[in-house]
Each structure stands twice: as C-alpha cells, then as structure tokens.
Amino acid sequence: MISRRNFSKRAGTLGALAAFPSIAACTAPTKMTEPKFWMPEEAEPHERTFMQWPVSRKVHPDPVFLDMLQQSIADVANAIAEFEPVVMLMDKKFEKPARRKLSDGVDIWNIATDDLWCRDAGPCFVRNEAGTQAVRHFNFNGWGNKQIHDNDGKIAAAVAGRLGCELLDNGLVGEPGGLEFDGAGTVIAHESSWLIANRNRGSKAEIEQKILEAVGGRKLIWAPGLKDRDITDYHIDALARFTRPGSILIQLSGEEEYPGDPFSNAANETYEILRSAKDASGKAFDLEILLEPYDIRVKSEDFVASYVNYYVCNGAVIAAQFGDIEADAKAKEMLARLYPGREIIMLNVDPIGECGGGIHCATQQQPKV
Question: What is the pTM of this model?
Fold first, then answer.
C-alpha cells in the first residue's frame, strides 16, 4: 500500500510522468469567457456525486489492501446514495466485482480510473447566472507527476464530454482539493500546492489570477503550507473548510508548536493568517477550532485523521470517525451544530486515511442547475 503522505520515500521510483491530453469526446478546452462562471458552495443542492473506483496495482500493489480500500469507497458511496444519486467511475471490466460492494443507489459509468481521488482528478463543476453548467479543467497531472495518472488525467474531460458540458481551461494545473471556496468570492489555499514548478510556472500574481478565474473568486488568502512532505503538498481541505461564507472550521492539534511535526506547525501558521484576514466582503472570519483525535485505531505516521475532510451532500454530512470515542463525539456534535437540519453520518474509512486522504478527497459534487 502506498500512502500519499509517504510518497517522498518512493518518489524516485516513479520517474517523470507526463500529463495526458483531454480525450476527443470533450468540447475543446477554451479560455474563460463571459458570462462569468463560478463554483457553487458545496452545501448547495446537488444533482449527484461523482466518485472513482481505485484499481491500479501500481499504486496499490497489495491485493488484500486494495480490496479493503474498495470496500471503504463503497461504504462512502452507499452512505451518500441514501441522500442523492452517486456515479462511480470505472472501466467496465471492473463492474461485476464492484457491483457486489455497491448498493443499487450507485450508478456505474464506463470511464476508466487509476485511483480514488475524485476531488482532484474528477470534474469540477461551475455555472453562470443563466444556469449554464460547465466543467472547469484543472489539468490534473498526478500532483506534479508524482503518481501515475494515465486514466485519472482524462476523467474531467471524459465526464464533461458525456454530459455535453463545455470544458473551461485557462491553463491552471492543480487540484480542487488544494483550495477552499465559499461560493461568495473568497478562496483560501496553501502556496505549497500551487506555487510550485511541478504544477505551475509564473508569478504568484499570475497563478492567483488563474485560480480566481477558475472558481469565480474575488479574493484569495494564501498561507504557506508545506512542500514535499506529502504528495499533495498539503491540501487545504484536510485542514480548513468553509462551513458558509465568512465561517471556517479548522482542525488543530491543540498545541501551539509540535516539535517534529511539520504539519501541526504549518496548520498553526495557517490559523494565525486566517485569524487576521478578511474575506472578499471585508469581514473578519468566524473561526471554529476542532481538535484532532489522538486515541485512534491506526497509529501510522502517514495516517490522515482529518475530521474536516468531510463531504456535504443533500440532507447529510458524511464524515470519518477514528476510534477516539471522545473526539469522535465532539466532532459529530460540532458538525451537527454547523450544519443544522442535516444528518451526520460518521464512517470508519481507515484504509482511505492510510492512503493519505479522506472522504472529501474521494468525492466531487455536481450542483443542481
């Protein structure tokens, strides 16, 4: 099993992998044109949820672990399918064994995949005031050519082509998991995931403008983040999430400094920046702190135990629990308070955490038009 948190130990074995072009089924990539498109906030009503079936033995060489990982992805999909339609993307040759794990509420589309990270490789939907929906192309390249993406690099274009959506491409390279957008003009992101030569070249101002254009934002608040310590270069969605415009939930260790833990130190740095920042409307943020769990089932250094990497779907919030009874209960209580009227579903998805991600990383919403 390969974790996205321990990629640096094996990076030399992957070689330089090239990004793959869009497939012909898509509308040709175009530059952003008026009327302006923006990415709706995740809590808005959804048409469906997209997910990806992990199959690559190059990424997950242990067949026993891969089966466990697929079951965790199925558990997430089946939970979401109780509230809204779910589409699982996979090559049709995997459909029969996958169907044994998936409920009838999960549809399967014949679009080939490598791994499970639909937040990053899947279709990111945007819309305009006329109600027209399009897919924003982030040109996924395996987090800077750190992982194979023969199929994953083509998914956004393939879904756009199947739905007949325009594919919007301003040349930005990166992953939607590397930014948080409140749907009302404000973006937060770690520089480490975007201002890096394996994704984008150019000045900070140029890359910032492309990000704002991509999601329809007006203001981007940067924090340094952390380069080269995990495959994503520290995606913001494992640390801080907008719960509504002007409000952010952030997960911290509870220690001002955590010697030897660069992630905790970087998280505290992000918190201090957000605490003094203002959103696109000129207002200070309402910051809520959720403490990370300690007494968890998986003790691996690479394990990601992020409560805030949850997914908001129609009528529910799907989140992870980690076996720390007190911390899990506090997380559920806080999510219930922040998302009133939604059912809070907490799942054991430890195999996803062992791979360096969470439920939000594995999902991508299609908003209703």
Answer: 0.91
